[in-house]
Amino acid sequence: MASTFLKNDEPGSLSDIYEIKILICYLLSCIEQPLSKEQVNYVFQFNSIVNYFSFCQALKELIDTHHIEEIFSVEDGKKILQLMPMGKNTASTLSGILQKSTRDKIISTAKQVLASEQQERDHQVSVTKVEDGYMVHLVIHDIGSDLLEMTLFAPDKQAAQQMAERFNQDAVILYRGMLGILQNDSMSIHQIADEIAKQNKST
């Protein structure tokens, strides 16, 4: 892979296209889930590691040299990046030239991005203003029918936001708690109460 330099003014950022190409291959090799061009770019921009134009050039060169292919996902039809054998070899043999802190940072961010997107797919929360307060609408999705859908009243905006944030954090616990109450399962309710108490102590 030829080495090209593009100026990047962010401290600690990469300007060497050669290193950027290695970093892209390394990221795709370490993350088991497929990533799109937009997701990889977001990871780099979030950490101010690679500017957008350098990223685009590096990715184009990787695609042109068959290190990476951009294909359509079978699941949703969106374009994703697929690491080819040459790209895998680049990641395994050359990633050591990159700083460990840089490698760790992009992997951590990518995992956070995927976890956040998965959370959004798994459940949704919306807040609607009504005449005497706010309505908080909660939905937990599943492959078939939704597992839970409910709407709760909040007297003010602060309470509504607090309910929405807690639902985003503990949607599974809420669902288990509802089942425990409806099924009169006192053991499950006690276990959930203990989990919440431990979470409150750690925050």
Question: Please, could you describe this protein's structure?
Answer:
This protein is of the alpha+beta class. It folds into two domains: 82 residues, Winged helix-like DNA-binding domain superfamily/Winged helix DNA-binding domain (Arc Repressor Mutant, subunit A), CATH 1.10.10.10; 82 residues, no CATH class. 55% of the residues lie in helices and 16% in strands. The strands form two sheets. A three-stranded antiparallel sheet has the order 3-4-5. Helix 1 crosses helix 3 and helix 1 crosses helix 4. The longest helix is centred in the middle third of the chain and has 23 residues. The N and C termini lie far apart (48 Å). It comes from Clostridium facile.
Topology:
Blueprint: H1 17-30, H2 37-46, H3 52-64, E1 68-72, E2 79-83, H4 85-94, H5 100-122, E3 123-130, E4 133-140, E5 148-154, H6 157-169, H7 171-182, H8 186-202
Helix pairs in contact: 1-3, 1-4, 1-5, 2-5, 7-8
- The overall number of domains is 2
Write down the Rg: 22 Å
Order of helices and strands: HHHEEHHEEEHHH
Structural class based on helices, strands and sheet pairing: alpha+beta
Report the portion of residues in β strands: 15-25%
Q: What's the total helix number?
A: 8
- Please give the oligomerization state of what you see: single chain
Largest sheet: 3 strands, antiparallel
Number of strands: 5
Defining traits:
two-stranded antiparallel ribbon; 2 domains; 203 residues; 3-stranded antiparallel sheet; Arc Repressor Mutant, subunit A; 16% strand; alpha+beta
Brief write-up:
The chain is built from 8 helices and 5 strands. The protein is an alpha+beta fold and 203 residues long.
